[in-house]
Write a structure and sequence with these properties.
26% of the residues lie in helices and 20% in strands. By secondary structure, it is α/β, with parallel strands linked by helices. It folds into two domains: 208 residues, P-loop containing nucleotide triphosphate hydrolases (Rossmann fold); 106 residues, no CATH class. The longest helix is centred in the middle third of the chain and has 18 residues. It is globular.
Length: 427
């Protein structure tokens, strides 16, 4: 049964307290940010403490096999294909994009639920991509995951105490008699009654169950939480409560987040930096202002234009929605060159011939487009041609040499490509 199906009368008293302000019970649905900002301002970017995670050219190809008795590999689902980014220590990076673009696969690679096809996952300077199961065990404590669905991610046959205490038992980090006090402490941290440790998940509302999931993720004091759509299954007022809780926890536990979500308003509030994915690749990444107020990639612009409560200044003051034509192509056989070209309203010949590099165009802003610019002001000629050593349609230019400054490394440099001067400059 979903949270919306539950009537207030069916709930125990503390559940009623949580669900009462839910929009389902009021005619006007409040906006997420209005609710969240009553208690918490949007998170700020702090780069003074370095990075906790560096993801470098990460790839995950799932093999596609033929039917029949002898199952041969006939292709790959290129779910994640050369993704690079950093997460600041104690900070949060948002990962957004349409369904199937590879967000969850990226999260599962970082927690090493999958072994990557290629690339590096540097966590505290150790490459997790290459570690064996035994070598991974101590690091697994440091990176935990919060899942989308609080209904299915908790074992209904275990008490809340057993669920939250299980990691302590598995990793043998505290003596047995200290497990219950630690569980109760965590229940209190996430806003639940510590005396309810021997209740079962079905005795809690959706928002409360997600709090249990958060407590479980915190049990081992992780340095990084991968939160995969942590509030998508919740009503908007409960979303705001859970997001505010995550902000409190971030401060109290000094934990960093990779925050995966499709809701751009939630991500804007929680994440000072955002990466936008399309078909297995990052197409734009930057700080909140660069992405929400100065998006330069046609895909980011289309995503933002579809969200009514994102300020329209975000996309150059344009009020109309940019409708993307066609479906997302298959990641088994992605388009040549730029993967977005089959749906891009401004695609030209070079887009089919060359993949646009993820080029740094501002202090903390990178974009993968041959024609990056604000809506209605995309350049007529590809800014990347000279850097790639081609002419304007993408044919090799014998007089030009590819620029060594085109890289796919994580993080940002002190120099970047100035779109007005059309050259690299120093900050
Ligand atoms: N285990 C798997 N085997 C084969 N293909 C997979 C597997 N897991 C994911 N995929 C494919 O990889 C691509 C990326 O999937 P992923 O779940 O990472 O997307 P997502 O961005 O999280 O989508 P959503 O927003 O719907 O959760 C999809 O095409 C999906 O079908
Ligand atoms: S590279 Fe070309 S197809 Fe891709 S987003 Fe830019 S203009 Fe569109
Ligand atoms: Mg997903």
């Amino acid at each position: 049964m979903s949270e919306r199906d539950t009537t207030a009368d069916e709930l125990v008293p503390e559940q009623q307290a949580e669900i009462e302000p839910a929009p389902a019970l009021t005619p006007e649905v409040p906006k997420f940010e209005e609710l969240a900002q009553q208690a918490h301002t949007a998170a700020a970017l702090d780069l003074s403490r370095g990075t906790v995670l560096e993801v470098d050219n990460l790839k995950m190809y799932f093999p596609v096999k033929s039917g029949g008795l002898i199952r041969r590999k006939v292709g790959d689902v290129q779910a994640v294909d050369g993704v690079s980014f950093e997460v600041p220590r104690g900070g949060s990076l948002g990962l957004v994009g349409e369904s199937g673009c590879g967000k969850s696969t990226t999260g599962r690679l970082i927690t090493r639920l999958y072994t990557p096809t290629g690339g590096r996952i540097l966590f505290e300077d150790r490459d997790m991509a290459k570690l064996s199961k035994r070598e991974l065990k101590p690091l697994r404590r440091e990176i935990q995951m919060i899942f989308q669905d609080p209904y299915t991610s908790l074992n209904p046959r275990h008490t809340v105490g057993a669920i939250i205490g299980a990691p302590l038992e598995v990793h043998k980090v505290v003596p047995k008699k200290q497990i219950l006090p630690r569980v109760q402490e965590l229940l209190e941290v996430v806003g639940l009654n510590p005396e309810h440790y021997n209740r079962y998940p079905n005795e809690f509302s959706g928002g409360q169950r997600q709090r249990i999931g958060i407590a479980r993720a915190l049990t081992l004091n992780p340095k990084l939480l991968v939160a995969d759509e942590p509030v998508s299954a919740l009503d908007v007022s409960i979303q705001a409560q859970v997001i505010n809780l995550l902000q409190d926890i971030q401060k109290e536990f000094d934990v960093a987040f990779l925050f995966i979500a499709h809701d751009l308003a939630v991500v804007r509030h929680f994440c000072p930096e955002v990466a936008v994915m399309y078909l297995g690749k990052i197409v734009e990444i930057g700080d909140r202002d660069s992405i929400y107020a100065h998006a330069h990639h046609p895909y980011t612009q289309a995503l933002l234009s579809a969200v009514p409560d994102i300020k329209q200044a975000a996309i150059g003051g344009r009020r109309e929605r940019i409708r993307l034509e066609g479906d997302v192509p298959s990641p088994i056989n992605p388009p040549s060159g730029c993967r977005f070209r089959t749906r891009c309203p401004i695609a030209q010949d070079i887009c089919a011939r060359h993949e646009p590099p993820l080029l740094q165009i501002g202090k903390r802003h990178k974009v993968a487009c041959h024609f990056p610019g604000p809506i209605g002001a995309h350049p007529d000629a590809p800014i990347t041609a000279r850097l790639l050593g081609t002419d304007e349609v993408g044919n090799p230019d014998p007089g030009a040499t590819p620029s060594p400054q085109i890289t796919n490394k994580p993080g940002f440099d002190d120099t970047w490509f100035d779109l007005d001067a059309k050259t690299f400059g120093r900050a």
